[in-house]
Design goal:
Helices cover about 25% and strands about 25% of the residues. By secondary structure, it is α/β, with parallel strands linked by helices. Strands 1-7-6-2-5-4-3 form a seven-stranded mixed sheet. Strand 3 (about 65) and strand 4 (about 75) form a beta hairpin. Helix 1 (about 10-20) crosses helix 2. The chain starts with a strand and ends with a helix. The chain binds adenosine-5'-triphosphate (ATP) and magnesium ion (MG). Magnesium ion binds near residues 39, 77 and 105. Magnesium ion (MG) binds near residues 39, 40, 77 and 105.
Length: about 150
């Protein structure tokens, strides 16, 4: 597990940009933490670094938003999905295992559909507090990839 600290929105975006450098097609990254922790801010740092000319916002109604970046990214927010069934009927599990890098906020309802190899991120802190960001690689492949993460 890697632990990072962020004192501002900008610092969290810089961490997102650093992560963007190691992301590849088909990767799954989960983002956990309370409302207002900074999950979407981190996603914004990632998609901007990958060349998006729009900011990441919460994909409120659509639940998923695709960015035509390189590699392509889909930002998903399962906040309002209560269980596996809702996760599936919303079409969320079809993105997992697809071509895009999947960045999934509030992954709980989709746990069963997540690949064995993935990166789990947890952000602690809210409001003006400093954030602690935990990056937990799951599976051998991600463990190796995170070894070079600065
Ligand atoms: N160190 C920090 N890192 C990230 N965001 C911060 C930080 N300090 C303050 N903020 C503020 O916290 C808020 C984080 O909002 P954001 O939408 O990213 O949260 P979220 O985790 O996606 O919440 P939700 O679960 O509601 O989608 C922003 O308003 C941001 O400016
Ligand atoms: Mg969010």
């Amino acid at each position: 597990m890697i632990e990072r600290h962020s004192a501002s929105r900008a610092e969290t975006e810089i961490l997102g940009a650093a992560l963007a450098r190691i992301l590849r097609r088909g990767d799954v990254v989960t983002l956990s933490g309370a409302m207002g922790a900074g999950k979407t801010v981190l996603v914004n740092g990632i998609v901007r670094a990958l060349g998006s000319d729009e900011d990441a916002a919460s994909p409120t109604f659509a639940l998923a938003h695709e960015y035509p970046t390189d590699p392509p990214v889909v930002h998903m927010d399962a906040c309002r999905l209560e269980n596996e069934k809702e996760f599936q009927s919303a079409g969320m599990e079809e993105y997992l295992g697809g071509e895009a890098v999947c960045l999934l906020e509030w992954p709980d309802a989709g746990i069963r559909f997540l690949p064995d190899s993935r990166l789990d991120i947890l952000i602690r802190g809210c409001g003006d507090e400093e954030r602690t960001i935990y990056l937990r690689p799951v599976g051998n492949d991600w463990e190796m990839r995170m070894e070079d993460f600065e």
